[in-house]
Amino acid sequence: MKLKMMVLTLFSGVLILGACSGNQSNQKASGSKEAEGAYPSQPIEIIVGFSEGGGTDTMARTLQPILQKELGESIAVRNMPGASSALALEYVNEQESDGHTILFQTDLVRVFPTMGMTDLTYKDFEQIGIGAMGIANFTVKDKSSLKTFDDVVQLLKDGNAKVGVAAIGDPWHLTLEIVNSVVGGDAEIITYDSGSNAAMAAMKGEVDFSISGVNEVVDLLRAGDLRSLAVMDNKPFDVDGIQSIPPVTDFVSDLDKYVPEGTWWGPAVKSGTPEEIVNKIRDAYNKAINSDEFKEFTKKRAIVLTDIEDSQEYTKEITEKTSWLLWDIGVGKRSPEEVGISRP
Amino acid sequence: MGELSLIGESLASFFTVKIMLLFLLGTVAGMAVGALPGLTTTMGVSLLISFTWGMEWIEAMVLIVSVHIGGTYGGSTPAIFLNIPGTPASAATAMDGYPMAQRGEGGLARGLATFQSFLGTILAAVLFLIGAPILLDLSMNFGSWEYFLLAMFGIILSANLTAESLSKGLISGILGLALATAGMDKITGVQRFTFGESALMDGFSLIAVLIGVFGIAEVIDSIMKLKPPLKAEKFQSSIPPWKMLLKFLPAGGRSSVIGAAIGAIPGVGADVAAWVSYDVARRRSKKPETFGKGNPEGIVAAETANNACVPGTYIPMLALGIPGDAVTAVIIGGLLLHGLQPGPLLLTQNPNILNQFFIILTISAAFMLVFGLFFSYLFQKILSVPRSIVLLVVTVFSVVGTFAVNNRPFDIGIMFLFGIIGFLMRKVGLAAPPLVLGLILGLMAEQNFRRAMVSSDYSFVPFITRPISLFLLVCIVFLILNQNQFLSKRLKNVWGKIKPKGASL
What domains are defined for chain A? Predict the structure, then answer.
């Protein structure tokens, strides 16, 4: 009997250890002293605000070994899903600003001021870089009567278009609002949780067209059941295995100041992190996104490498533009002013 | 034949030490939760899922599917020897199994149950391989209207069949639907019932609720009336003679089809499959009066169908992304976690996935057969573990498992809260399955209804003009109008004799 109990206890013990192994670097010595001298002085954590296996997680895990090599300290990726990644922002904000907790930021940070998932904004973080972007594109089913982006614009101007996006406040919805404000259109929005589901709805004919990231629908485009009419950019997008996708600016030149639009990813640290640490991480990140491994990853997934120079400034501008746009069209939940985002 | 060579190719990748160990662990763990009354397959799978986070998706599926198969089978042993079904799915097995055991034919009954469970899984796995691609082809015709109706159908059917009465079932179902409204509304971004708690923004964690109502509620219930360990007699198992197996082959085939078909309907699970198959067998028998008195055919019908139900539930799960019960909801969660989106996109992401599931199912069935036939003493050991230790282990697993999903202590609180709610529900005779199904399917029903409305300019007409939608609508109306005559009547005359308490999904 005793033996049986021991075995049971051992067995559950092993499982507990296994379950908790993701958290082993939880405890951190407050290291303001060593932060000055040698960074990194302890293992680094990358916090991902989404579950394992998703697009954000996969990208973080592709970068992790390269960053680890560059920084010379072990790096663990930790997933902290919930509240559209707002929980991850809050967690990082509670840690020391010593560069040992890196947030894998996504463009969602720009909608929080008005959508209200968290009070944290770009000001609470120092954006290390924004190296990769999933560009928005307009897709229709293969047999759709919409042949070019001009047809899309006409449909929006007529005002009875039904458009599929992933969620309110996501880059695909923002893309629609931008186009509508420029061409003076209107549309009924239907949300489908993800860009690929929205594209499926277009294939089923539930919506006239869908907006999603090229990276989300690249398999469907290659299969030929879905057609992409334009990308929200000012240059054509060449994807392996399909025809080059024209930019929206070929059809509506006024859209030039709003492109590129899409979802983006890049590391950030808590604001107040010493500059030399930020620079050190930035150098490592720049090397990582220029590595062959990462380039191959982005090519396969139809993700675009950006040329954003000052990512903190970019985050500021895009947050102001986006949150006020959402507030002005009435989908925002609170005025961006409440969290100190001024009108651009 | 190209198909077969493809299966062969995938097969090779399964023969690694790690994967075989996972099959072994899953089968034994599944049999244990199946055999212990009160612990259900749903609970076993929910507890295990968080331990699969770090695994490759295929390893995770190996573990989960073998628990699912082992658990569905495991309930038969206490049903036969002790007249206590280990899970609700094996309640029908007790009807003839226990009389056989009393006659001293328990070993034969158990051997038969084991072999038929194996047969049912294999035959239904073949049906899965045929059915899933057909439904996948159809899936492009499933729009928001159809998804909404399927979700409602599942909740109503579950309310109808798993509860004492339709009204009590619907109370649980509506409670589940209400719970599903908590969290940030994905369509407008409005926060509903979150009370400013950011951990509630994605709604209640399904795993926390599942573990609460199935695990913790059972623990509380058992503490209230601490039962002594089951008197484990000597469980023997004899391999049934070939002649007997051959004789039951047609009945087994019929039961497999019934089991797989019922599995493919959202909202009903292995328990219903077993009862329907049992009832059909009795009606078709030349000597229906021998049923319930130790007729081996009763065991054949029940045990084949409840295991055949498992591959059946995987058909809509993979082809449409619709979880028909709690176990498949957990599996879908696991697939999403590994970047695989069930539904029409699945084959473009992983063209081989149906074959891989087929292989996992057949290997699990083989493990189950071997362990069932040759390791009877395992069951004896499992059933003689003192109740207090079982409860302790379940509690520890519940806490760790719940926490590991999101790394949030908040979820542990939710789990205990729903443990208490689940316990109170049992006390007043409200069944847990419709609640869980309401929570699982509620968001799907709501979102798809709203999409359907916007898409059709707020007209209900497409519900009638779309063919699949019309068919589903007719089914739902039929179900409600005939709730006392149709399925439920034939079920309920048998059902009344052994009323499964807190039936699993």
Answer: 43-133+263-339 (3.40.190.150), 134-258 (3.40.190.10)
